[in-house]
Model the fold of this input.
Amino acid sequence: MAPPPGPLAISASPRVHALLARLHAASAAQEKSLSQVWFYLKRFITFYISSSAWGPAADDHMRDKFVALEEDKCHFVYLLARSSGALNIVEAGTSFGVSTIYLALAVGQNVADQKALGRTVNGKVIATEKEPTKAARAREHWAEAGDEVAGVIELREGDLLETLKRDDMPEQVDFLLLDIWTPMALPTLQIIKPRLKKGAIVLADNTKMARPLYAEYLDYIQNPANGFKTTEIPYSGGLQMSVYLPE
Done:
């Protein structure tokens, strides 16, 4: 019998695997609920009618929602980060911190690999979250994950268009995960782009399901003049994978 998907893809302790399984189950239950399906449908209808997809009422509704990256996408993200040796990762849109655990596992293991070769390196995941209650929940989940992610995650609370402009950003960013309100995707990429190393990976979630809302981002990422090679991975909702390869 094959091992379950988590242990098959991810190197982590049984405690962390159990935590991730529990969090994914809770997130999936929320996403499949009729109220959440109706919420997303209303957002699309509102966008097509008035080009406005968000507002205070939407913020209130989403305040206690995981909106976590699906488990199969998280496995893919982890394996990409591990295989690329990513040391500095920016996650735009942390929510309850589920995908952050995968990123932190990868960074911690990449750092350990480099140190085993006698190299002096550091690495971290810079996570962003505007909603204080979500940031608090994320910290609880990371504390439960324990030493495997401790010291790897730096959470920046507030407007990410400000917190990611701070002078204490890493000189080089190896990996950027965009899992945020779609109009924020392009401005966030443009802030991080000067720090992207050649070969850096950029992922944007739900680019098929929310394609009209991603129009500006996709126009930018698909323009060869901006230095990216890009393709859509056929996960549920779509996952745009781009690699920064400026000439």
Q: What stands out?
A: Residues 172 and 197 are 6 Å apart (CA to CA). The mean pLDDT is 89.
